[in-house]
Specification:
Shape: elongated
Largest sheet: none
Radius of gyration: 13 Å
Oligomer: single chain
Number of helices: 5
Order of helices and strands: HHHHH
Length: 89
């Protein structure tokens, strides 16, 4: 996911989310994108990435923890950011 290609950031929370995501590894961003924005199942992601479902679950959990930490440093939470993003899709 190329975070630099965003042409429009609709709100301060959107900007915060982009900044927080930019701190994460490419694999963290990928798993979060597949789950939250592409809305793929863990089984679909496992098949696509040729990983076990257990590995997908672990990677997702770790990515959400790292994103939560990055958002907290900016005064937001993961739940708030994800629900805001889903509202604006």
């Amino acid at each position: 996911m190329d975070l630099g290609s965003a042409t429009h950031v609709a709100s301060p929370l959107d900007q915060t989310l982009v900044e927080a995501l930019s701190e994460l590894s490419r694999s963290d961003v990928e798993i979060l994108r597949l789950v939250h924005w592409e809305q793929l199942s863990r089984a679909e992601i496992a098949s696509m990435l040729r990983l076990s479902i257990g590995t997908v679950n672990v990677r997702y959990h770790r990515a959400t923890q790292r994103l939560e930490d990055a958002l907290r440093r900016r005064g937001h939470t993961f739940a708030k950011a994800v629900s805001h993003t889903k509202e604006n899709q």
